[in-house]
């Protein structure tokens, strides 16, 4: 964990944190602190058990629609977990694998998967299975490698497997190949990130012609190369690279394929003959064909997912509908689109904002979610799925796409990242006030939600404007930004330096000092603010120590933190979400009137 001394002196700035001893995350004092917090949390849960059971049923029911059944591919079925990047792959034989990524060679004789290790840590092992000619026979594990990245891909028309090697947690710095052969096969290292580029990481991107692209990124600039017989052929550099074929790619969100110049290109398929652009949070799916002008087919308030291995299939998560699929073969077709029983609205004043609420009722509460980091588009397509219990009880749920997110163009992204992060905080505060006024919800009935880097954003907002909201709900939140940024022994402090700032750069350190939640908690410790937080001992992205430090600094009995084990950075499941929402709802809605009961009945599932 690096330097755990209470005083950190950078020469031009020094500050003290008397809770720094927690950063070791061990010893009797640490164990006692965690146990005390967990006990307080479970005591609160005991008072809302019936509500937890009801919330759990509602979340499970909403996420088990027929439109969300597992998809099939080459004798395997695959289904994503609701709250994590994990995909569950199941073979006809009954073999089930929890993976972050998986692939099969063209001859369908080998199946490879990046498997998360036990204990919840974001560490992976590569497993390669040999498929049997008998369809229902269990595949045989023939090769296994530890310390690898979360991506795998087979080269076209070959049994050559591409994967990434890892030299430390969350860093993937080598490109490797594995070829079957005698005993364990042959491993070759094609590329290693040079010394001096510690802020770079590697990704694998499949290409729909069967080639494999490698992207080296520092979270701002990408360099892309294609895997060739004896190494990599580097071909492009830009802010956003989309490989289309072994000799074709698009960079910086622009193309000449008949798309409007003011739309930012997110994804494109030459085989499927479609493109997806985004502008101010709204996506457009285009039909390609006419070079002079593409045809706008669907406008999406949410996400559009695709897999290059099935280029004529688009999976759509739109806030207004249950998930549906678009097939672009020949004449385009859509699976049935069933509207959700809620009103969905879009606002775009200071920032794009999507809102869901029940009809013909006065709102009883307001939950606002935000993220705003890494140029990642704000997830809005599944707002109803994730927050249904609150919607059923008359709450308004909104998601704000602040600067720093990937919801518009590169200018929007850079307007809220790095030294500009205060802009994102200011924008969120203004959006909260606007939504409260629009829906007539007071601050005491309003809550903010943020997970991971989104925790930095929402916690900074309540520091900037104490009394802005009545509740704060966070999962694995990045709340001790200043000490984390300046601890270069933590891998992510270097890898993510282009996003949050480099700990040896005074300008960037001072910018983080301006927003880092730990350093701006008011003297009363937000005593009137209800705070519900989850973290995990196996989290390698946001260490639990910074979360526990933050919660220890807050004051009042209305502060609830639970430190779990074996879940890592993705702690949520239906039960934990139901528990958290029950505490939040009970804390901000101490009494329920007949209007609330009517709302729940009208929108029951």
Automatic annotation (TrEMBL):
Q: InterPro entries given for it?
A: AB_hydrolase_fold, Peptidase_S9_cat, Peptidase_S9A, Serine_Peptidase_S9A
A GO molecular function held by the record: serine-type endopeptidase activity
Which residue range or ranges hold the Peptidase S9 prolyl oligopeptidase catalytic domain?
Answer: 390-580
| GO biological process terms held by the UniProt record | proteolysis
Tell me which family the UniProt entry assigns to this protein: Belongs to the peptidase S9A family.
* Official protein name in the record: Peptidase S9 prolyl oligopeptidase catalytic domain-containing protein
């Amino acid at each position: 964990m690096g330097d755990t001394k209470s005083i950190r002196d950078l020469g031009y700035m020094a500050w003290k944190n008397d809770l720094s001893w927690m950063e070791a995350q061990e010893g009797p004092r640490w164990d006692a602190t965690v146990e005390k917090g967990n006990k307080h949390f479970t005591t609160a849960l005991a008072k809302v058990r019936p509500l937890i059971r009801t919330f759990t049923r509602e979340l499970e029911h909403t996420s088990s629609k027929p439109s969300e059944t597992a998809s099939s591919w080459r004798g395997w079925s695959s289904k994503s977990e609701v709250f994590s990047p994990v995909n569950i792959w199941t073979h006809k034989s009954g073999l089930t694998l929890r993976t972050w990524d998986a692939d099969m060679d063209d001859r369908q004789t080998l199946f490879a998967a990046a498997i998360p290790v036990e204990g919840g840590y974001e560490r992976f092992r590569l497993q390669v299975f040999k498929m049997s000619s008998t369809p229902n026979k269990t595949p045989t594990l023939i090769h296994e490698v530890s310390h690898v990245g979360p991506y795998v891909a087979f080269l076209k028309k070959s049994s050559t497997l591409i994967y990434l090697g890892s030299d430390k947690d969350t860093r993937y710095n080598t490109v490797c190949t594995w070829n079957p052969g005698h005993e364990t096969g042959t491993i070759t290292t094609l590329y290693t990130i040079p010394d001096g580029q510690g802020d770079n990481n590697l990704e694998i991107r499949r290409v729909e012609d069967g080639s494999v692209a490698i992207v080296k990124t520092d979270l701002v600039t990408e360099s892309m190369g294609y895997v060739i017989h004896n190494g990599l052929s580097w071909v492009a550099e830009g802010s956003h690279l989309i490989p289309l074929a072994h000799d074709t790619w698009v960079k910086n969100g622009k193309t000449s394929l008949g798309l409007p110049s003011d739309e930012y290109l997110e994804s494109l398929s030459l085989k499927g003959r479609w493109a997806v652009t985004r502008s101010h949070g709204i996506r457009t799916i285009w039909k390609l064909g006419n070079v002079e002008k593409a045809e706008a087919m669907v406008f999406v308030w949410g996400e559009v997912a695709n897999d290059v291995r099935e280029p004529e299939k688009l999976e759509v998560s739109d806030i207004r509908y249950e998930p549906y699929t678009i097939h672009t073969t020949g004449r385009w077709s859509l699976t049935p689109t069933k509207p959700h029983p809620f009103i969905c609205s879009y606002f775009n004043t200071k920032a794009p904002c999507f809102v869901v609420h029940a009809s013909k009722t006065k709102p009883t509460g307001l939950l606002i979610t935000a993220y705003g980091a890494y140029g990642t588009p704000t997830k809005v397509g599944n707002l109803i799925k994730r927050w249904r219990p609150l919607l059923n009880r008359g709450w308004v749920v909104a998601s704000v796409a602040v600067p720093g997110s990937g919801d518009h163009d590169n200018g929007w992204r850079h307007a809220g990242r790095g030294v500009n992060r205060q802009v994102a905080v200011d924008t969120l505060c203004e959006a909260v006030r606007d939504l409260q006024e629009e829906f007539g919800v007071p601050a005491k009935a309003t809550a903010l939600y943020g997970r991971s880097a989104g925790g930095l954003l929402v916690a900074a907002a309540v520091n900037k404007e104490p009394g802005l909201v009545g509740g704060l709900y966070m999962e694995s939140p990045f709340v001790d930004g200043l000490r984390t940024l300046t601890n270069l022994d933590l891998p992510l402090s270097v890898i993510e330096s282009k996003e949050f700032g480099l700990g040896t750069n005074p300008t960037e350190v001072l910018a983080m000092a301006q927003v880092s939640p730990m350093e701006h908690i008011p003297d009363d410790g937000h005593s009137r603010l209800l705070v519900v937080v989850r973290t995990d001992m196996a989290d390698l992205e946001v260490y639990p120590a910074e979360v526990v430090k933050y919660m220890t600094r807050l004051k009042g009995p209305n502060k609830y933190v639970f430190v779990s084990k074996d879940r890592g950075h993705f702690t949520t499941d239906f039960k934990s979400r139901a528990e958290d929402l029950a505490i939040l709802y009970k804390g901000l809605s101490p009494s329920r009137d007949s209007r609330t009961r009517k709302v729940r009945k009208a929108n029951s599932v």
